[in-house]
Specification:
Blueprint: H1 2-15, E1 21-26, H2 34-50, E2 54-59, H3 67-76, E3 81-85, H4 86-89, H5 108-116, H6 118-125, E4 133-147, E5 162-165, H7 169-177, E6 181-184, H8 190-195, E7 201-205, H9 206-211, E8 220-235, H10 237-241, H11 245-279, E9 283-286, H12 289-298, H13 300-310, H14 312-320
Parallel strand pairs: 1-2, 1-3, 5-6, 5-7, 8-9
Antiparallel strand pairs: 3-8, 4-7, 4-8
This protein binds pantoate.
Length: about 325
């Protein structure tokens, strides 16, 4: 009798459907943006490694709220995954703010080497203590200024310009030093504020300018590349701590695949985006090296402050990466 019962239990266990775990992933931009490209590549990679163990529900275009709210959801365990910008993440791990120092990262190659190397790994490791688990650095590209007031060619063109910045103290300080009137604001409010004229401009990489169709609310685009903008792919500690070693390895591989997809998207839009925005009616100017030098000079004051805040040693280490 005992044997019959055990056999029945075994049959029931084999026949029982294994339930997939749902991952809610929230991000600020549309599914056809670099964020969507990263999220979809992550999902596809995980499916390839783990089959149907996980299902994904995407919440693009700030469908779960602004980046800060989504990150708080991860901390609470009510959201499983996000891709968020370094500007917002600075409020969770302040050291990340160093990446927002204007003109510190020279080009995408330099930025990718810094983030893929020791410095990037050290920063990712700090997120566990902040109640988040960081998997890898994604990318947005170099940020440029858009406005409705006119082309920006010199720091004086920023005088009094109501420019939306991320809620990032490093950026706010830099735009204040350049004479602008920085207005920190969560991304979901930006398009409406531009439409209503509550702000004159904003700054974001081509990946965002193109995918969010900022040409519909902005006339001028100045390619100044004042700062490199990274993102991080993060999961909630509740999800991470419940995974076994094989699942953790699959998540880490999926994050690498997501980074590859995001960087490919950014490379593509960096070469095609300007023409697309011109065709859509934007007036585009690019700062010459001499014009850029004037912006660097105007930022000499904040630079000393950044060195005091983040440590000259860290800033030197970043600059020394070849
Ligand atoms: O400007 C921002 O807030 C960010 O670059 C964005 C658009 C939300 C993407 O992370």
């Amino acid at each position: 009798m005992k044997h019959v019962f055990a056999a029945a239990l075994l049959c029931a266990a084999v026949a029982a459907p294994s339930f997939a775990q749902e991952i809610k992933i929230g991000y600020a931009l549309a599914e056809d943006s670099h964020y969507g490209a990263g999220a979809k590549a992550f999902e596809a990679s995980l499916k390839e490694s783990l089959g149907d163990q996980f299902t994904f529900r995407h919440f693009p275009s700030s469908g779960l709220g602004g980046e800060r709210e989504v990150l708080e959801g991860l901390q609470l365990g009510s959201v499983e995954m996000t891709i968020a910008s370094d500007g917002t993440l600075t409020n969770f791990v302040p050291e990340v703010g160093v990446l927002g120092v204007p003109f510190l990262l020279r080009d995408k190659d330099h930025a990718r080497k810094v983030l893929d190397g020791e410095i990037g790994r050290e920063m990712l490791a700090k997120f566990d203590a902040a109640g988040l688990h960081a998997l890898a650095w994604g990318e947005q590209g170099f940020r440029h200024i858009t406005s409705n007031r006119g082309a920006v060619e010199a720091p004086s063109d920023l005088n009094g310009l109501k420019i939306r910045t991320m809620e990032n103290p490093v950026h706010i300080e830099a735009f204040r030093a350049l004479g602008a009137a920085p207005t920190p604001m969560a991304w979901p409010e930006v398009i409406g504020a531009l439409e209503q004229g509550a702000i004159d401009g904003q700054e974001n990489p081509l990946s965002v300018i193109v995918s969010a169709k900022l040409n519909e609310v902005q006339k001028f685009l100045t390619l100044d590349g004042h700062v490199y903008s990274s993102t991080i792919i993060l999961v909630s500690p509740t999800l991470w701590n419940g995974l076994d070693d094989a699942q953790k390895a699959a998540f880490e591989k999926a994050a690498k695949d997501a980074v590859t997809a995001m960087r490919a998207y950014v490379d593509d839009v960096d070469s095609s985006g300007v023409a697309a925005m011109q065709e859509a009616g934007m007036q585009v100017n690019e700062l010459s090296p001499e014009q850029k030098a004037a912006f660097r000079e105007a930022l000499a004051g904040p630079y000393q402050q950044y060195e005091a805040q983040f440590g000259k040693e860290l800033m030197d280490r970043i600059q020394a990466v070849e």
